[in-house]
């Protein structure tokens, strides 16, 4: 469904991605794990069209993503919840959600989707009128995910959704990710929380300094010696 | 007391027009992080447009707003699309130079077409006044222009707060990259913002044309005023620019009466510096990094 082939990218003179290959099939939860600075977020930025690759190909359902503007990528059904939440601070929770369904084709489902995300995150319903910027970190993360869901994603790209959340909330978020996936949304997850994320994912990739160094089924990688040593401290 | 009320009231009325100018500039700044140093020249274009419509087609300046607003919107959108969008990622000096350059082209073109003579647009009501009671009178054109300003401002607030496109403009101003991830075409939002900002400046130009001299260099002073209003209100804050405009109108008007009209600009700048001293990010501004 989503295919990244031989992706190379540089920020100016600083090359950060080398021949990255990655594939996500319909219905899967695929995770990319890797240390800080490995190039995970940069890979997602390339997919979303926020930056353009130096070389390589990116395609989604047979369409060439490198020719699309970021808003066209969203219209195609690839929706990213970026690292660091990035909610609109001076807009209310409700306004943030409305922006999530800015794309014309999704506006008809707006009310239905609002009901759905309020069910997933009851906290948001209570804070409907609160300004995004005044919410706690965890609440902002819920809002960011909910806002992403408003766009009727075919594939949801989640960049470190568990960052800075309490253990209880982390579990909650992973449960919700599984739930969303069961409802038919394909998921590409970037995570530092290697144990939790590998447990929920069908397949995973390990990135190190801009390269994919390992790939396999989630539970296989959990038992992989290299992964154990590098990420799980075993 | 009547004198005070009188000048306070006319301060509010003229402040409304200032607010319109300031809102335009702050809207553009909010979305693009560019200060449009040609803003006053766009207002000047609006004034000449009104002048032409009045002298050639005999359209009343206040009625002509219906034509000026959409035409200036298109003009601003064109400037954004053809020129400004190209320098969005350039260094700040180049952006400043471009907007100054565009302003110069506008004022020099106006000079070529209309010469540098002062034009006056005289309507039947240009110098008429209205009794509002308690011995207070206000200028009729100022009152009408304020009513139109209030209507335009209210419509703008409604647009920015309630419509998807208006919210998308605000979202783009708050986080451009996140806005792109919502499927918002931020280039289009920039065109819209510059178009709207220009339409507001052009409308302000139309509204003041019955009471101001029209000449090619009239814009410079308004650019400065718009800049002061925008900084005073907090860069990018529409509410701040609204308040800032009114505040400056009142300050000018009161200082013209109680100090001297030659000193009103000085008083405005003193106020400006005082506000910045105590609230460096402006009245409604958030400190930005
Ligand atoms: N805008 C930028 N300009 C220059 N270099 C950048 C920029 N963004 C990221 N980098 C560099 O690119 C490399 C990859 O960064 P990236 O954000 O993709 O890492 P990551 O795997 O997401 O890390 P983390 O887990 O810390 O989020 C890093 O060395 C980083 O310093
Ligand atoms: Mg990252």
Largest interface (CB within 8 Å) is between:
A-B, 27 and 18 residues
The CATH topology of chain A corresponds to Rossmann fold
Instruction: Supply the CATH class of chain B.
Output: Mainly Alpha
CATH topology of chain B: ABC transporter involved in vitamin B12 uptake, BtuC
Relative helix content of chain A: 25-40%
Strand numbers in spatial order across the main sheet of chain B: 1-2
Output the structural class of chain A.
alpha/beta
Q: How much strand content do the residues of chain B show?
A: under 5%
Tell me the CATH architecture of chain B. Orthogonal Bundle
Head-to-tail CA distance between termini of chain A? 35 Å
Estimate what percentage of residues of chain A fall within beta strands: 25-35%
Name the overall outline of chain B: globular
Q: List the ligand species.
A: adenosine-5'-triphosphate, magnesium ion
List keywords for this structure.
heterodimer; A: about 230 residues; alpha/beta; Rossmann fold; about 40% helix; about 25% strand; B: about 290 residues; ABC transporter involved in vitamin B12 uptake, BtuC; two-stranded antiparallel ribbon; 2 strands; binds adenosine-5'-triphosphate; binds magnesium ion
How would you explain this protein's 3D organization?
The complex is a heterodimer of chains A (234) and B (289). By secondary structure, chain A is an alpha/beta fold. Chain A has one domain (2-232): 3-Layer(aba) Sandwich (Rossmann fold), CATH 3.40.50. Chain A has helices spanning 40-48, 70-75, 93-100, 104-107, 110-120, 122-126, 137-149, 167-182, 194-200, 218-222, 225-231; strands at residues 2-11, 14-24, 29-34, 55-60, 63-64, 78-81, 155-159, 186-191, 203-208, 211-217. The longest helix of chain A is centred in the C-terminal third of the chain and has 16 residues, at 167-182. Chain B has 289 residues and is mainly alpha-helical. Chain B has helices at residues 2-32, 39-57, 65-82, 92-114, 140-162, 164-174, 176-181, 186-208, 219-233, 238-258, 264-278; strands at residues 129-133, 136-139. In chain B, helix 1 runs antiparallel to helix 8, helix 1 (2-32) packs across helix 9 and helix 2 packs across helix 9. The chains are: A alpha/beta (234), B mainly alpha (289). Chain A binds chain B through residues 48-50, 69-71, 74-75, 79-82, 86-91, 95, 98-100, 102-103, 107, 147, 151, and chain B through 164, 167-168, 170-171, 174-175, 177-186, 286. Magnesium ion (MG) binds at residues 40-41, 83, 159 of chain A.
